[in-house]
Amino acid sequence: MKTALQKSPIPESRAYVAKLLNDPIFDPHWHFHSEYQIFLVLKGNGTRFIGDSVKPFKVGDITFTGPNLPHLWRSDQEQGETENSPWAQGVVIYFKEDFLGNNFLHTDEAIRLRRVFRKSLRGMEFTGDTAKKLKKMIMQLVGLEGLDGILHLLKILNCISHTDNYHLLASSGYTNTLREADTERMYKVYSYVMKNFKNKLAISDLAEMTNMTPTSFSRYFKVHANKSFTQFVSEIRIGHACKLLIEQKKNVSTACYESGFQTLSNFNRQFKAITNRTPLAYKKEYGR
């Protein structure tokens, strides 16, 4: 496995990088970096981890993450549909806080930008008309170079700083406590859960896999994920159930058992706790 903490994706000679991703899968590694990141999903779906937020991702999703906020987009399908037909596509923009110089953010003109940069430390996801507008602007940036690109990036950030069409992702109490060794260990745990969440998961198995006692693993996971292992597994299962209800038009009972729950009553209880809706209400609200 490659190192989880990657070197800067921005060459020293550049103020920012905007590129089209066209790969069999999105980068599957749990990692963080010192750059700000804007990410647009053009093709593909799966589960997105940002800080302690765990949610499904889909085409059109746009997120803005701040420095050192751990993240991972895990595609549902780990291999491309065909060797020459990648199914995960997106646009990623990286830039550093001082890409306009060391003093710009301290000016009166940058007050909105300072505020949105603080919000990005928890991760932001954009919705509604803002998401539609940002998608067009992000796609335009990919084809720009030089000063035109910097000016356009500022337009994107200005749009972000003026909108109310967003929600924050990581909880207000989330703090990144990860070290490089932790990111690889947590990725190993996440990967195992994503492959096995439909089956019964025992903490003892995860503890053995990470060379810990069950008690030590439970404590370790809660410190780094900001939630219990049981809660994390429930979120993964409910996220999968949401996709079954909406995308595959499954009924509630089928979604329950195909997501790893053993009883319908527990499924309904966990679903409402996580989504604030019953499965039927969720399907009615979001179903096409």
Outline the structure in words:
- Helices cover 43% and strands 17% of the residues.
- Mean pLDDT is 88; it is low at 1-5 and 79-83.
- It contains 10 helices and 9 strands.
- The protein has 2 domains: 16-168, Jelly Rolls; 197-286, Homeodomain-like (Arc Repressor Mutant, subunit A), CATH 1.10.10.
- The chain has helices at 111-120, 128-142, 146-162, 180-196, 203-209, 214-225, 229-246, 252-258, 264-275, 279-286, and strands at residues 16-23, 36-43, 46-50, 53-57, 62-65, 71-75, 88-95, 124-126, 166-168.
- α1 crosses α3 (146-162), α5 (203-209) crosses α6 (214-225) and α7 (229-246) crosses α8.
- It has a 6-stranded antiparallel beta sheet with strand order 1-7-2-5-8-9, covered by helices on one side. The chain has a 3-stranded antiparallel beta sheet with strand order 4-3-6, covered by helices on one side.
- It is α+β, with helices and mostly antiparallel strands and 288 residues long.
Number of domains: 2
C-alpha Rg (nearest Å): 20 Å
Number of strands: 9
Task: Briefly note the CATH topology name of the largest domain.
Answer: Jelly Rolls
**Overall pLDDT, averaged?**
88
Number of helices: 10
Question: What is the CATH superfamily classification of the largest domain?
Answer: Regulatory protein AraC
| CATH class identity of the largest domain | Mainly Beta
Work out the strand percent.
15-25%
For the record, give the distance between the C-alpha atoms at the N and C termini, rounded to a whole number.
Answer: 40 Å
Helical content stands at 40-55%
CATH architecture label name of the largest domain? Sandwich
Largest sheet properties: 6 strands, antiparallel
Q: What series of H and E elements makes up the topology?
A: EEEEEEEHEHHEHHHHHHH
Low-pLDDT regions: 1-5, 79-83
Shape: globular
Strand line-up of the largest beta sheet:
1-7-2-5-8-9
User: Structural class from helices and strands?
Assistant: alpha+beta
